[in-house]
Amino acid sequence: MKRNPYITEKIAFALLFLATILVLLPVIFIVFIIIQKGISAISWEFLTTSPRMGMREGGIFPAIIGTVYLVAGTLVFALPLGVLAAIYLTEYAKDNLLTRLVKLAIINLAGVPSVVYGLFGLGIFVIFLQFGASILAGSLTLAIMVLPIIITTSKEALESVPRSFREVSLSLGASKWQTIRHSVLPHALPGILTGIILAVSRAAGETAPILFTVAAFFLPKLPQSVFDQAMALPYHLYVISTQVPNVAEHTRYGTALVLLLMVLSMNFLAIVVRSRFRKLKKW
Amino acid sequence: MTLKSVKEFVIEKLIYLCGIISILIVVLIFVFLAKEGFSLFKTVSLKAFLSGEKWYPISDPPSFGILPLILGSLFVTLGATIISVPIGVASAVYIAEIAPPRAKEILKSGIEILAAIPSVVIGFIGMTTLVPFTKQILHLPTGLTAFSGSLMLAFMAMPTIVSIAEDALTAVPRKYKEAALALGATRWQAIHRVILKAASSGIVAAVMLGIGRVIGETMAVMMVTGNAARIPHSLFEPVRTLTATVAAEMGETVQGSDHYFALFAIGIVLFIITFIINLIADLSVNKK
After folding, report:
1. What kind and span of H or E run contains A76?
2. B117–A112 CB contact, under 8 Å
3. Three-class SS of residue A43?
4. B33 Cβ under 8 Å from any chain A Cβ
5. For a 10 Å CB count at each end of chain A, is N or C smaller?
6. Residue A160: how many CB atoms within 10 A of its CB?
7. Which CATH number fits domain B55-285: 3.30.565.10, 1.10.3720.10, 1.20.58.2140, 3.30.450.40?
8. CA–CA min distance A49, chain B (Å)
9. pLDDT in tens for each of the 283 residues of chain A?
10. CA distance B21 to chain A (A)
11. Mutate to test the interface with B, among A15, A77, A115, A238 (most CBs of B within 10 A)
């Protein structure tokens, strides 16, 4: 029996649509339920005071500050390294074995499990270099983890700048670095910025890499130097939802909401920057 | 040499150095995992480590067999793959080929948001909603099972699979589709007989990278699978994965103990598994 191909098509398209809904519905569910159950916990006090009574009362201020420090530290290391690596790959690298290896290494770094980054950070920064569990060790670990994100997005941004821009600059007598600095980088900047924002969002949300390199269960005072431990928002959520019994539901959802808002607002920013950039692009 | 050319020389060397730093990091990761991990094999044989059926790291005498952990990871990964691959590829097809341009942008942003949700938040939601739900629906003694982990991870692998498969589908030359349609094929026939075939290597890469994501995922899986380090017999039992073991136990070990070395040795196993998966994905993309 031969089925009508148009009916088959209708059924197939309906199933494909259903699959798409199945992917996206849980996203809406998660965001909705966290907002609904967490919003009541959000208050000025919650955002600006330390946890009290064994995490059951008080706020999450030290965890927020810790995450901000970690993200800043991550950027200090990952930003120059990642952008320069992308410049190397697009502007300098020749098509040879070394370049092939660099690309393979980047792909591999992107796939390394986050907990393995944690082990690596523990082995090299905390123990071998004797930084101890500290903001420095945690930032370096997170920086290495987000490096592939920054390299890949920056590389795409640089590659999207037309060849002719470089040719014109070189033909006018500019050196290679002057060409990159003045005719290529400015045009790639929004794309690079998008990558950086995504890297920040990733670094802010990760737990496994900071477990053994920086995160503290509870600290009575804020970190004073880069060699101090710090509390961090994702780890704090993990702690109050699995390690400490009887934490009020709205406190846990409130913490999840703050973390989610931090991360999603950065991703939203990245989306806006990118779509602005697309509209402005004239070539 | 003028000052300017000295400056350029330095900058270019710096760029070169940063360019090859990723190779250096990969090597360093392996060296540091190996430095600590290989110490385990002074006291435990590789065979006993990989095929030992008992993970009792703090008993006396301790036993460091990671077979239950490997099986835990395998069960969860298998479950997640079975769920996420068909749904993920199907929605990639929908987004790439069927959705109108406006809807396409919205759907892609939705996928990006999903990718951005931190795994600890997904784990938290899984703990508070999915776990009690599976317990009730399936009448299990506990909802913290490999099945809950699979569902959670399937969901987390989705963005990887959808976005990479979608890229692969979009990269298929327009001509292929037009030729199929010109020969009288319906849109669906063009999609599943021509476009899907042409994009197959990219889709394989998408699936491999999705699997890599699942194996490496730590926090969410630790929070919903129950963390029982014994050999699982079905999807509806608690399991403990390789990643969760490292994350849960590293904080309690003494530096330099066999237990500490064993956790680094698990790190080596994870590193090698993900390396192979990424290599396969890379090879299948660069085949042509």
Report:
1. helix A61-87
2. no
3. coil
4. yes
5. N
6. 14
7. 1.10.3720.10
8. 22
9. 567 888 888 888 889 999 999 888 888 999 999 999 989 888 888 888 888 777 777 788 889 999 999 999 999 999 999 999 999 999 888 888 888 889 889 988 988 999 999 999 999 999 899 998 899 999 999 999 999 999 999 999 999 888 899 999 999 988 888 899 898 998 898 889 888 988 999 999 999 999 888 888 888 788 888 888 888 999 999 998 888 887 888 889 999 999 999 999 888 888 888 888 777 766 6
10. 8
11. A115
